[in-house]
Amino acid sequence: MNPSYQLLLILISALEITFTKKLLPNLIIIIITILYLMYKNLPARTWWWILAAPIIPGLAILVTIGWFGSHNIMYAWILVSRIYVYILTGTAIVKTHSTLTLTRSLEQNLHLPPKYAYGVLAALNLIPKTIENVQKIKQAATMRGVILNYWSPQLYFKAILTAIHWSDELAQAMESHGFNEVQSRTVSHAIAVKTSDWWLLIGGLIILQLLLIFCPV
Questions:
Q1: Is 157 within 8 Å of 133 (Cβ atoms)?
Q2: Measuring CA to CA, how many Å separate 84 from each of 49, 89, 182?
């Protein structure tokens, strides 16, 4: 399925689920997404994170609503199931398409401005360099007898100053390579929208409406 249309389907589904109070549609979506991720051979470590990480906020919701709030256990379970729906569906699109492919698809199919593509791609490419720079700042401070922890404001202030310097270098590099924010961006690989993408999007939304309307709980 086209990445843009898959993301659009997930966003619309998440928005509708947010404003409905039914548990069964959430469970059906969770089961379908789990089967899809099993088909995509999701690593065991990723399974552990997406299934174990929501346990803490889920328990907090159950305790808050079930014992100290409205005492509505069914509504508490609905909220917990929403957390798993959001995490699993988000993991599904990331597992299916790389972030770079998703960014290019959104730009081409939804006609987003070139600034969007440039900004996202620059941010993604600078993530490893930013992590490395933070480690260098901590090591340099340690050599001077100063301990910078991850909650130290000085650490982030120095990292922000470095990022500002990088932004100026990146702008000069883009201009020297002929990038122009007011011109349409050329692509090496066009991500086409097929008829099947439309059918999958419309069919998925229709199935979701049927679940939300006819499921008893």
A1: no
A2: 11, 8, 41
Q: How far, in Å, CA of 155 to CA of 141, rounded?
A: 9
The model's confidence at residue 186, banded by pLDDT at 50, 70 and 90, is low
Residue written as token pair 């966003």: 11
User: Residues 190-199: contacts with CB within 8 Å, 24+ apart?
Assistant: 190/108, 191/2, 191/3, 191/4, 191/101, 191/104, 191/105, 191/108, 191/109, 192/2, 193/2, 193/4, 193/5, 193/109, 194/2, 196/1, 197/1, 197/2, 197/5, 198/5
- Tokens representing 115 are 């600034």
Using one digit for the tens of pLDDT, what is the confidence trace for 39-64? 888 888 888 888 888 888 888 888 88
Integer Cα distance of 79 and 200 in angstroms: 27
When computed from its CA atoms, the radius of gyration of the chain, rounded to whole angstroms, is 22
- The full set of domain ranges for the chain reads 3-105+192-214, 114-176
How confident is the model over 201-217, as pLDDT tens digits?
889 889 888 888 888 87
